[in-house]
Amino acid sequence: MAASHSTSQDYNPPRFKWTKRIAWASIGLLVLNVALWGSATLIAQHRLNMLLATYRAAGEPVHTEDFDTHKDIPDDGNAANYYLQAEEAYIWPASLPIELSDFDLIRAARSDNPNSYADEIGRFISTNAVTLELLEKGANCDRAEWQGMFADPLSSSGLDKALAARSTGKLLSIAIRASHCRDRSKEMLDFLYAQARLAGHRTSIEGSVINHLVTTSITMLSCEAVEETGAKMADGIRMEDRAYCKKRSRQIVAEFLNDVGYSNAFRSGLISERVVLLDLYEAIPSGKPIDGFFSGAPRSFIFLIYPTLISHCRRTLESVDQVVAASRFSTYPEVMSAIDHVSVPAAWWGIDRILPDYIASPEYDETMRVEYTRLSRRRMAAIALSIHMYELENGRRPETLQELVPEYFETVPLDPFHEGDVPVKYLPSANPPVLYCIGPDGIDDGGLFGRRDGENEDSKNLDLLFFLDGDRPLRNP
Question: How many of the other CB atoms lie within 10 Å of CB of 475?
Fold first, then answer.
């Protein structure tokens, strides 16, 4: 009986041996997976840290708190103080019809019947007399040092800060056209200078691409004012004011041609986009939703894909870096050839599941097109204003743009959409006379202007025109 009991204790059916082997293999596989996960995480994090170290070595911001470095300037010499006060003082008169907007006033002032809203325009300007005075004081300052202006471009506060400045820019547009209607060209040029300086001073803000686009949109208002009023500008300039107006015009031209300031602001905006992307990636592991950009996910799921998430973050930041580098080129063809190959490799299915396109694969093609379109407009506005001042002094327009050198600019501004160093085109004998750049398609259509049905001009496929007599066709009804 004892021998029989011993034999039964030593007996192990085959199925138990395989169960042990499967258990040990499973444990080994689990350990291997954990080791691989840990190694992948360490490698991915190390590579990301090395990339962030290059930003710090270059003195570039990595996180949002790295913005808003500033130098002290006396309050009365800091244009930013006047501009912020102007935004606080800005008022939309309660007496104006609720359906009326500042753009309605701008359109009324530049229409064939500028007196249609003369009373409303007068009330709007008089109500904001303090705002206009503050804007002119800011324009007369040499520097603007902005403090505490950086805001997450994805937040409502960031957009509100940018749009507040745009409101003061539109106020100046209304004042410019009102002065023009009253044949007060000296006053008009002062407001135009204040508007151009407002945009120029804002290029020193460390902010988002949205902030930069709002800043350049203020400059576009100035360009529109030059196009619409320039041909008749000389009518309101008295003989004793000619020297003053000519000096003021040169100052405005210099603001339009401030390519360095605008390009630095654009790069700063792109870098801030990179900072925001990094912040978003770093917030995802918490699993908490990010309003409008991340709906949330189980932390266990995020834990599993964490190495891939880090790697994808690095690749996304590197793609933005290439766009930042491309923005240093002076022509649009160079920029597009540099970013055509910029793409974030297709994400693993887990990344696609939790990230929207904005974070997973940011696109900047349209941003670049808008930036260089606005650059071409600023250059053409500078040339146009110089032509009008030349005509005031000589009784005729120049036959070639070279006649404006070196009195108004050192060299004729170049077409940023053209390969190589090709100046902006000038057609003084055309009907109507225009300046033009060839546009994003890179094809010289000889100054051909066209529209898409019911929209603005077809700037993607035809030339970009600046009408010297202010006779740009209005938008189709």
Answer: 10
Which residue in 274, 158, 168 sits closest to 222, CA to CA?
A: 168
Contact predicate 374/220, CB 8 Å: yes
Tell me whether strands 434-437 and 425-427 are parallel, antiparallel or unpaired: antiparallel
In this structure, what are the phi and psi dihedrals at residue 114, rounded to the nearest 5 degrees? -65, -15
- The pLDDT confidence band at residue 154, using thresholds 50, 70 and 90, is low
Helix ranges restricted to H, 90-241? 102-109, 118-127, 129-139, 156-181, 185-202, 209-229
- Collapsed DSSP state (helix, strand, coil) of residue 434: strand
What are the residues whose beta carbons fall under 8 Å from the beta carbon of 5, sequence distance 6 or more? none
H helix or E strand, kind and range, residue 427? strand 425-427
Q: Which residue has the tokens 């006060």?
A: 85
Q: What is residue 294's DSSP assignment?
A: B
Q: How far apart are CA 40 and CA 281, in angstroms?
A: 17
Express each pLDDT in 57-116 by its tens digit. Answer: 998 888 877 776 555 666 778 999 999 999 999 998 888 877 777 777 777 766 555 566
Distance CA 221, CA 169 (A): 8
Residue 78 CA to residue 144 CA, distance in Å, equals 5
What is the number of alpha carbons within 13 Å of residue 458 lying toward its C-beta? 12
List Cβ neighbours of 134 (8 Å cut-off, separation of 6 or more). Answer: 82, 83, 85, 86, 89
d(CA 291, CA 16): 53
At 290-346, the pLDDT tens digits run 665 565 667 777 777 788 888 888 888 888 898 899 888 999 999 988 886 655 555
Please tell me the predicted confidence (pLDDT) of residue 1. Answer: 46
Whether the CB-CB separation of 188 and 120 falls below 8 Å is answered with: no
Cis peptide before 333 (omega within 30 of 0): no
CA 132 to each of CA 77, 78, 125, 137, 181: distance values in angstroms, whole numbers, following the listed order: 17, 17, 8, 9, 18
8 Å CB contact between 321 and 270: no
- Three-class secondary structure assignment of 40-59: HHHHHHHHHHHHHHHHHHCC
CB 128 within 8 Å of CB 90: yes
For residue 236, which amino acid is it? G
Q: Which of 345, 344, 338 is nearest to 323 (CA)?
A: 338
8 Å CB contact between 227 and 472: yes
Q: Quote the pTM value.
A: 0.85
What count of other Cβ atoms lies within 10 Å of the Cβ of residue 128? 24
- Our measurement of the distance from residue 223's CA atom to the centroid of its chain's CA atoms, rounded to an integer in Å, reads 17
What pLDDT score does 151 carry?
57
Answer for the pair 467, 432: CB distance below 8 angstroms, yes or no: yes
Unique residue bearing structure tokens 């203020």 = 218
Determine phi and psi for 326, rounding to 5 degrees.
Answer: -65, -30
Length in residues, the chain: 477
Cis amide bond preceding 432, omega within 30:
yes
